Amino acid sequence: MCLPALVMLGLGLWGVDRGGIWRDEAVTFQVARRSVPQIWRLLHGVDAVHGLYYLLMHAVLAVHPDEVMLRLPSVCAAAVTAALVGELGVRLAGPRVGLWAGLLYAVSPLAGHYAQEGRSYALVAVGATGATLLFVRGVRAGAWRAYGTVLALTCWLHEFAVLLLLAHAASLALARAGSRLWRGWGSAAGLVVLGLLPMILVSHAQSAQLAWVRPPTWATAESLLRWFLGPGEGVFWTCLALALLGLAGLAGPPGRLTCARVGLPLAVVPPAALMLVSRLSPLYVDRYVLYALSGAPLLVAAGADRLARLAARLRLRVPRPPVLALAGAALAALALCLQLPLMSDDRDPAHRPDDLAAVARVAAREVKPGQPVLFLPTQARNAALAYPGAFAGVRDVALDEPGPESGTLYGREADAAELRRRLSGLDRVWVVADRDLLAGRWSPSGPAERAKMAVLAQEFLPAGESADGDASVRLYVRRVALSALPGLAPVPVPQRPARR
Fold this sequence. Notes:
By secondary structure, the protein is an alpha/beta fold. Helix content is 60%, strand content 7%.
């Protein structure tokens, strides 16, 4: 399946150097450049779920630490995933279904989005798709060792990949597999879960990291369905119709896997399971189940193949098989053309939640060496960690101990009393902050963050601002000093709609 891989590789490399990273990528960038002992120490307190990925990226960024190298593993992983989806289609339904499924994955805007993210999700997708291919081989040949090994490694890249076991169990149930297959698969599945137990225990202790996640709704499920099948109206409805037609493959003799029996559980079970759990304890984020996307092209391609076979049975004029395969590839190319504007927009840094390069450019232009800077909340220090040159020589008012030495993501800051003392000696301070926080749309947690907000509100006034997206670089001047300095006046706080 070289063609789907080449298409995915080309789309992944298109605009991969977009000139800015956002907050999650910045965490990868700064953590992976720490020493291995520093990464190991960090994982004891936070982000254990990404530990294996950080260690892999440590080796990658040791070659050349820049934004392209940060994203290159995800680009390559997405290309391999497209090839594996194609190979799944070949094994389950034949070469033309494999070609169509692989191309549909390659032109998916969702796959393209995460192909250009410096995070683990594209690597999890290639591991999960590879494990599914080995699952199909296991059902046919009874060989489960490679399946268990690949899936265990994938789960250590992200623990929610363990939901793939539920999808594979559903596939066995739909195929009405015999007890011998259940025993073989069950042994491998048990070893995967057993090997993941240390990660589950450690990450459960770090579950406060997901406090920002909200319970999913029906709109969440509808949005995921649209992204899986294609967000454009024409593409979505065509793919939905073909996927429904592909469900006919659920029928058939027992013990046989089909595109429907593999693709439907793969696409539906992991997201549905995580959404159901999230009704009690919110955990669902769409990128955590990106790997489930691999099931959707299998269903769509199987539906297209079934439509062609029905046309042939009705003695309609159907092209010869090679021409038919090319016609399906041409329709995938049409889907790509229809979604190109969306994919082009996705390569704009402004399309991400924030653009730390833009913040860094403002800081480099406005903030001079030796001037005090306050990051609000502490996560806003991400910009300085990702682009240290832009903040070279500035005084970080709140910082007590940098992240690598303290075993934290953003460094250890002074307590509330010490922060008040440090700010009391300043007439001016540059504040790098979340604009929604400054506008009062959400409140920070912890006494130190509240102390920052209180001191700024009570003792300082904003005297100038350069903003970009969700981030603000704002000069605050002490109220007494502001009235004594000619040419400086309070500036109004810009209002903007709340984030969805």
